[in-house]
Amino acid sequence: MLEEQVTTGTRKLMNEPQAKRMTAGAAYGRLWRDWLVPHWGKMLVSIVLMAIVAVSTAGYAKFMEWIISALQDNHSGVIWWGPLGIILLTSTKGISSYVHQRVQNRMLSTVQADMQKLMFERLVNMDLALLLAESPAALATRFSADIELIRNASTQVLSSIRSLLTLIATVVVIISIDWMMAATLVIVVILAFGPIGITGAKIRKISDHTQNEIAHMTEAVNEGLSGIRMVRTYQLEAWVKRSSDKVFERLLSLRISLVKWQAMITPMIEILAGLSIAMLLFLVAWRIQSGAIDLAGFIGLISALGVATNPARKLGGAYALALQGMAALERVYALYDAENHIKNGDFSFAEGEKAKGEITFEAVDFVYPDGYQALHQVNLKIEPGKTYAFVGRSGAGKSTIFNLLPRLFDATNGQIKIDGLDVREHSLEALREQISVVGQDSVLLSGTVLDNIGFGRKVADREAVIKAAKAAAADDFITALPNGYDTQIDPAKNAFSGGERQRLSIARAILRDAPILLLDEPTSALDAQSESTIRSALDDLSEGRTTLVIAHRLATILDADQIVVMDKGRVEDQGTHDELLAHDGIYAELFNLQFDLSPSNGGQRRGRSFAGSKRKRGMMERISRFIGFGGDSDSA
Q: How far apart are the first and last CA of the chain?
């Protein structure tokens, strides 16, 4: 219920953090500054090793020229130093390449983990409105697909430095043999960037769509599997399959298109390389005939051209993957840069001090980001230590009231005050320490049972946790677990019943000992026996605290100090149970519907049973008195 308005409105229409279009320099420049520079030591080692590999690779062509020249001059020593030199060059290249890959992989793996940590930190602290704008399944793809693509692209970009250094070293070798040949090679490379750039722009556009579609695919799979019980019960397998197949087909089409454009780059480079080699061979033949170079120079040039072809091809592949990485970087940066609108206040309570619990709403409006106005001029004063129940039809604004108190959202207009101070002036930590929540869905996290109860307070010893569990009637089933309070909880498995989970949640709230308690239909999904146990624990928990209760089952809130009736975002009525019945308004209508006391039923009650309440007067007695059955409430 706390997120009812969000899931029905915000997620549907509110835009998620939008990725800004960035240039390659801006995207990878930020990656360099924010993530790679902190690892400058490993980066420096990696660049030095890449330079050694480049020089070793390009030096092979120059060494071949020396060998041929020595053979032409009949130097007998070449028979020894030639093979040894080749072995030395190739060994140096191989060892340097191996160490470089180890260093680079370690560095990029660390960067990947750091990016994922920061992303999760940003999400945990993000405004709820922004966070719920995108489904958890879609956000998960940013942790996996997007950041993995960034890692792969970064690997290729860094490896392209080696290819570029190799090309530069090769040009230097060619210059040392024949400057005209080198100038021709540089011109050919420059001309090649035109068609490659056009292809790259297309790849980047398709990559944007592909990454978004991967998120949709994850959503479709998650939706189909999370609701598999309902799907099978209603025999909706074919419908779910058709829906997911559409996503798979769109993703297939994008991937095919992406591969098509990626595949163009390598042949393009091959053709350009072939043209350049043909041109250079023509020039070589012409230069030989003119006497500008000899046979040794010819062999050196041919070897150099062969050396240049492989790094040129790798540069093309790296360029294509780097463009895909840009799409992922833009999506990730959009999350990093999402601006929170809920700002931290300055007020904090003194050590050991707590709020009294007086809450006032002064002309409060709230409009969700999609434009839906959930609250209209709400004015309400909640006295400390009293229980206020909020009732009304679905969409009346009850959940929004609960959302605004701990500042999951901020009021659009008006003020919400605790003890006379606007909640926006509180620090978020101080404000939320004053509030405990028990909802209809008890959330358990990975950890022990002791940890999950202990989350209620930052510093809590084992004795305090056990005391809270006993107060919540949870100690018996906890001690019956294999490892008692040290039993590990796996949230993905339903190891606890609904009633047990609720008792753990109540124990957490008891341990927190906050002066303000929010109860969001905490017994709505429980059986009668569990409800009776839980309600008894909740009665004890709410004693002496300012308690706000959302309840659709009116039988659970008949003894509330005040019942606040809401309709269409407004407070329509307020009073005790008896007073509201006498007003004959919305509350009386809801009460008559639930207990089947409408005139069409002759005002007669159908057979029902209700759990008793220990607070004030028994609920059965009050229902019976209202209906007119006297004290014999078990006759039904």
A: 32
Spatial separation of the C-alpha atoms in residues 270 and 617, rounded to whole Å = 89
Which of 273, 136, 138 has its CA nearest to residue 196? 273
Alpha-carbon distance 161 to 495, whole Å?
53
232 token code pair = 């099978």
Report DSSP letters for 276-328, one per residue.
HHHHHHHHHHHHHHTTSS-HHHHHHHHHHHHHHHHHHHHHHHHHHHHHHHHHH
| Higher pLDDT pick, 360 / 181 | 360
Contacts of residue 252, defined as CB under 8 A and 6 or more positions apart, other chains included, come to: none
Segment 122-134 shows an average pLDDT of: 81
Question: Angle 428-137-398 (CA atoms, 0-180°, nearest 5)?
Answer: 45
Burial class (CB in 10 A: 0-12, 13-18, 19+), 305: buried
**What pLDDT does 629 receive?**
37
CB 382 within 8 A of CB 546: yes
- For the whole model, what pTM was predicted? 0.68
Is the confidence at residue 9, as pLDDT, over 60?
no
Contact indicator for 309, 303 with CB cutoff of 8 Å: no
Helix (H) or strand (E) holding 381: strand 373-382
* Residue with more model confidence, 91 or 223: 91
- Residue for token digits 């602290």? 125
| Rounded distance between C-alpha atoms, residue 33 and residue 386, angstroms | 55
Is the pLDDT at 276 greater than 90? The verdict is no
Name the average pLDDT for the chain: 77
If we measure between CA atoms, which residue out of 382, 342, 343, 345 comes closest to residue 362? 382
Q: Which helix (H) or strand (E) holds 350?
A: none
Least confident piece of the model among 32-46, 183-197, 419-433: 183-197
Helix axes 528-542, 462-471, angle to 10 degrees: 120
Rounded to whole angstroms, how far apart are CA atoms 402 and 4?
11
Q: In the numeric block, which tokens belong to residue 374?
A: 């959930």
Q: For residue range 202-236, what is the model confidence (pLDDT) as tens digits?
A: 666 666 666 666 666 666 666 666 666 666 666 66
The torsion defined by the Cα of 291, 297, 302 and 304, in degrees rounded to 10, comes to -140
Residue 116 exposure: Cα atoms within 13 Å on the Cβ side: 18
